[in-house]
Amino acid sequence: MSxxxxxIQHRDQIRRVAKSYGLDxxxxxxxxxxxxxxxxxxxxxxxxxxxxxxxxxxxxxxxxKSHTYGLSKIYELVINNDPAIAYLQVxxxxxxxxxxxxxxxxxxDFFKNNIFFAHTNRKMVDTMANHGTLxxxxxxxxxxxxxxxxxxxxxxxxxLIDPHRVFLxxxxxxxEDPEEDATAVVGRIKTKEYLESFxxxxxxxxxxRKKLEEASLRRKKVPERPERDVLLFLIRYAPLERWQQDIxxxxxxxxxxxxxxxxxxxMNEGWASYWHTKIMxxxxxxxxxxxxxxEKCAGVFSMPPGHFNPYKVGLExxxxxxxxxxxxxxxxxxxxxxxxEEKLHWDTRAGKGKEKIFEVRRLHNDVTFxxxxxxxxxxxxxxxxxxRYNERTRRREISDRDFNAVKAQLLAGLTNHGxxxxxxxxxxxxxxxxxLLAHDFQGMELDLNYARATLGNLQKIxxxxxxxxxYGDEKPKLLSxxxxxxxxxxx
Length: 491
Fold this sequence. Notes:
Elements: H1 5-20, E1 28-33, H2 35-43, H3 54-68, E2 77-79, E3 84-89, H4 94-113, H5 124-142, H6 144-155, H7 182-185, H8 196-199, H9 202-219, H10 230-237, H11 242-263, H12 265-284, H13 290-301, H14 310-326, H15 331-336, H16 340-344, H17 353-363, H18 366-373, H19 376-382, E4 386-390, E5 395-400, H20 403-414, E6 422-429, E7 434-439, H21 448-462, E8 466-472, E9 475-481, E10 486-490
Parallel strand pairs: 1-3, 7-8
Antiparallel strand pairs: 2-3, 4-5, 6-7, 8-9, 9-10
Helix pairs in contact: 1-4, 1-12, 2-3, 4-12, 5-6, 5-11, 6-11, 10-11, 12-14, 14-17, 18-20
């Protein structure tokens, strides 16, 4: 649905204001949709078209019910694309539409300029549509159930990628040796060209190629060094059919596209919130809209005890950085000062706040953002604390207010998005063609239920037993799955 004349005027005004503040964003295409259409798009992760899969239908039903019963409402939905695409709900009030537009321009600026988005596909709307076409074609050829079941396997492993790979100039896995092409080395029977397809059928050559790959794995250690991109390793070395490789490649490509959004949730929402509040309160908001606007912001930025709100924390931390750099509260002289009263009133009028927050927006992700700029004073003001579940009282309770404990818990949850770090260690474990993984143990043990399910899915793809080295009760152990049974034994 096209934007109304009033919405076009608001969009153009907000765009001009955002530009005047120094924001540099992709052009944004706003589309006006009904609430049901918004839920459909949201179920697809914000994209108008994706591959068919039951999880999107399940997500839609959850969103629809939540909206119907008044439990939630989607206000903003924007896609990292060039041009960016954002959606406005037709039933929203005018102040909502202006707030969302200002928020979206903040997001688009972040997408365009943050270094962790630099390697993302800026034409992902087209790529997602192509993925949908590919999966539908595979379903027609191999059957919907068969393809959908394999997609389930692939999606259960989509977090087993290497966040640092996009910054590497050379791939961790070595290129294939052309001299070890199975069709050239093994099993090909010499014949005349017009008899080639009969004497050397493709199925025969593919079987010979797989035999050569298995023999190659036994001759040399694969991988040569620990490999964190498990999906890429499976694509290269697992005994898969071509269509199965296509599915893994599709899931892996989408996982890398969504990765920086998970790495920068606090920063991205904080940055967009910082600019929508500035744009609205300083240049756009009408006097008659102040109360409605304040009510909307109160809902977005609320942070009940025991809950973490990335919008609120990101916004306040950007404001804190701006204030500190405007007042000169940084550098060696500031750090060396031990006088509480002097630091309380410290103001060198440095005026570098705006410059600093733009620099932070460009160079950091959530982990480095929190690690570098979270301070004890900020934790006190934001009332951040560590909480744990009390089995006796059956509720979450404050367990620690110490700054170092708060920071450690935040960083632990943000590192690798709270997922365990896993590496492939050996594709021929104990010389049996079995797959060995290793858990980079950093104090958090694996959840055995998830480990059992993940190893089982890996085994289905690898077709042989799969193992992982990890720790339990501070002792090394080996978890294994042979396709029938999950085992755990000490090392």
